[in-house]
């Protein structure tokens, strides 16, 4: 469908997507995909809360089913959507707060993520988005509705056998530690802050475990110093227009600590199966050799000038927005294109998620 075609009605979309979902349900390797995190995996929950951090307008979603801007920070689908399809479920995971969907839809997959959030509550406060504890509260509400819908036994089976995708942490560094003097005064070194976040991540995993989750994927940080926004800041600060290598080094160190946490959780909690899903290396491969993956542009994004815009600054009226997002690694200054997300999801399926499916 042309990105300029009129979007279909909500009723048509529901009918179409339900039909697509039904085709693969019999082959599903897990009964549901359940998602927690930030804008890397938010399917539209921020649409329903009071925050400026939204993407429920064009050109966001122009390559999604029907060209509909769902609230995903992408021109189309995001990694959980591709992972859901890969395990035999629907080709998308709906947002829990999206009024288009209900418990019948959520029984096969649901997203509680909120763009702009992090492990630290101070991160979610920056743009007034859902803190991670609120995502847990929504999950508890979901469990109650699931039990009423499917019955206690079936609900318990879905909860214990579902694949849980957890993706957050980038905002804790870029929007919190490096942006808030109060945080840097509390944690004098980046390692102290990382250890603090690691404790929060452990608490989150343990709480999910106590609520019945068993198959979990903890996603690491991408090379966050290579985001177009950080490249722009690097240029403005007079240090060249390449990646902020300091930020990339922080991401690598934190990923190492997350990997250690996953190993420890597997040894301490009975019946749990956690994997560390690392997007860093494949992302670096894409950035270093874009033509191998079919990309032409890596340093700037498709939307607007591609240097600093995201959210409301990514305006469909901008004359600079690219015609073909498939040639770009990044959609806006902070988020990958649908094509990049598909490559990353495929990499995670092959190198980590297969271990718990």
Features of the shown structure:
357 residues; 5-stranded parallel β-sheet; 43% helix; Rossmann fold; alpha/beta; single chain; 13 helices; 6% strand
Please tell me about this protein's structure.
The chain is an alpha/beta fold and 357 residues long. It has helices at 10-25, 79-86, 103-106, 121-126, 132-150, 152-161, 170-177, 181-186, 190-210, 228-236, 245-268, 280-288, 338-351; strands at residues 33-37, 109-111, 163-167, 215-219, 273-277. Strands 2-1-3-4-5 form a five-stranded parallel sheet, with helices on both faces. It has one domain (10-223, 244-280, 339-356): 3-Layer(aba) Sandwich (Rossmann fold). It contains 13 helices and five strands. The relative contact order is 0.13.
List the helices and strands and how they pair.
Elements: H1 10-25, E1 33-37, H2 79-86, H3 103-106, E2 109-111, H4 121-126, H5 132-150, H6 152-161, E3 163-167, H7 170-177, H8 181-186, H9 190-210, E4 215-219, H10 228-236, H11 245-268, E5 273-277, H12 280-288, H13 338-351
Parallel strand pairs: 1-2, 1-3, 3-4, 4-5
Helix pairs in contact: 2-13, 5-6, 9-11
């Amino acid at each position: 469908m042309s990105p300029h075609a009129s979007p279909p009605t909500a009723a048509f979309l529901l009918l179409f997507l339900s039909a697509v979902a039904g085709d693969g349900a019999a082959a599903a390797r897990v009964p549901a995909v359940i998602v927690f995190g930030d804008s890397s995996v938010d399917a539209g929950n921020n649409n329903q809360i009071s925050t400026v951090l939204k993407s429920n307008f064009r050109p966001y979603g122009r390559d999604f089913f029907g060209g509909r801007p769902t609230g995903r920070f992408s021109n189309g689908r995001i990694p959980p959507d591709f992972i859901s399809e890969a395990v035999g479920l629907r080709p998308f995971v709906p947002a829990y707060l999206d009024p288009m969907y209900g418990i019948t839809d959520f029984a096969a997959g649901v997203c509680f993520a909120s763009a702009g959030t992090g492990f630290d509550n101070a991160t979610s406060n920056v743009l007034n988005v859902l803190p991670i504890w609120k995502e847990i509260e929504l999950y508890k509400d979901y469990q109650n509705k699931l039990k009423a819908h499917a019955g206690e036994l079936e609900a318990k089976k879905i909860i214990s056998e579902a694949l849980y995708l957890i993706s957050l942490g980038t905002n804790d560094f870029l929007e919190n530690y490096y942006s808030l003097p109060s945080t840097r005064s509390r944690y004098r070194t980046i390692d102290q802050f990382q250890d603090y976040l690691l404790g929060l991540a452990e608490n989150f995993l343990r709480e999910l475990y106590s609520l019945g989750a068993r198959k979990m994927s903890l996603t690491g940080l991408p090379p966050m110093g290579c985001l177009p926004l950080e490249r722009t800041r690097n240029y403005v600060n007079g240090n060249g227009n390449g990646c902020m290598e300091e930020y990339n080094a922080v991401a690598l160190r934190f990923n190492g600590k997350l990997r250690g946490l996953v190993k420890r959780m597997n040894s301490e909690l009975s019946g749990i199966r956690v994997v560390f899903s690392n997007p860093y290396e494949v992302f670096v491969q894409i950035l270093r050799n874009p033509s191998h993956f079919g990309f032409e542009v890596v340093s700037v994004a498709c939307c607007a000038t591609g240097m600093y815009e995201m959210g409301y600054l990514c305006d469909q009226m901008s004359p600079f927005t690219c015609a073909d997002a498939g040639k770009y690694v990044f959609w806006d200054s902070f988020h990958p294109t649908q094509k990049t997300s598909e490559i990353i999801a495929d990499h995670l399926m092959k190198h980590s998620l297969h271990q718990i499916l």
